[in-house]
Amino acid sequence: MSAAADYSVEGDVLRFSGDLSLARLGGLPDRLSAHEGKVATIDLSGVDRIDTIGAWVVHRFASTNGAAIEGLSGDARHLLEQVEAADQPVQMRPQTTSSFRRVLGEIGDATAHAGRTSKGLIGFMGATMIAFWNVVRHPGRFRFNATVQRFEVVGVNALGIIGLMSFLIGIVIAQQGAVQLRQFGAEGFTINLVGRITLRELGVLMTAIMVAGRSGSAFAAQLGTMKLTEEIDAMRTIGVSPMESLVLPRTIAAIVMMPLLGFYASVISIIGGGVLCWVSLDIPPVTYIARIREVVPITDLFVGLIKAPVFGAIIAIAGCYQGMQVEGDAEQVGLRTTSAVVQAIFMVIVIDAFFAVFFEQIGWI
After folding, report:
1. Shared-domain flag, residues 31 and 136
2. CA geometry: angle at 211 spanning 328 and 303, to 5°?
3. Of 260, 295, 35, which Cα lies nearest the Cα of 151?
4. Can you say whether the dihedral through the CA atoms of 244, 246, 247, 250 is positive or negative?
5. In this structure, what CATH number is given to the domain that contains residue 62?
6. Are residues 36 and 161 in the same domain?
7. What does the CA dihedral 353, 358, 363, 365 come to, rounded to 10 degrees?
8. Cα distance between residue 45 and residue 146, in whole Å
9. Which of 109, 246, 344, 348 is most deeply packed, by most CB within 10 A?
10. pLDDT tens digit sequence for 140-194
11. Distances (CA, A) of 43 to 39, 47, 48, 210, 248
């Protein structure tokens, strides 16, 4: 083993000796820092070995004292030159970007991300339609058991929470409507308000929001976890299409169950409004039901039933698309699940606005 690093001073010449490596430096750097006296030359001819740390110690001492370095050759000289070249002051550039440009850049990044996501969703919708057509052409590839299971998860298991939510919404609409209409002596029109708004808008819209938060997030989390554990890659390896076996059953279940859940939610909301009218406005149930039949046109029911499957398709495709985009680590599952719910709810509300304009143009108001 080489001797530990050391030095000696002869006049204005400082001679290093031993092993100038991290393991053998010991207290040499502290001794050099405490050294007093003029040093004009540093002699390294007696050094057995030198590494980057040793070269840095020598370079720092030489720079501090303005001394010349001698006695090195070959790789050791090249190492010292590299250390000297790397010893450059760091220049901190002040932030020159204005707040306006930074905000504008963030808006641009968000817009570009929204565009990429929209493009991906449209492509994923096309892939889902291709998978559906392939199943139509080859019925034996249809996953009947998986689809029925999704019917239970999306529809049957959601009846309780959707029923409770709808009942309470019906009560709230009736109560708030009655309070406002009472100022004009028109409490009886509370029935019109409850019947039309629940069948036409709130019943299916609130159901879609609930399904997006409940089933859309589940789709994204399930497929995202399968993507992380490479189950989807394994399915492709053995010749099973993930679109046909995973995405299609979920999409069909959401499309089929949404009209049923929407109608169920509307009926429960009407019942909730009827309870409030009975208790608060002294309108008996028979009168309430007869009035509902008089004031609510059948087109309001058609409007809700037409919008529901579209909302179901949007929720399922958004959830499955985000789940299939998971990659990297488990944190992505949570991020993609959140994105699936936000995108589904946003698109449902936007499409609902387009439906409102469309039905108003054709006279279904």
Report:
1. no
2. 135
3. 260
4. positive
5. 3.30.750.24
6. no
7. -10
8. 79
9. 344
10. 889 999 999 999 999 999 999 999 999 999 999 999 999 998 888 888 899 999 9
11. 11, 9, 13, 79, 78
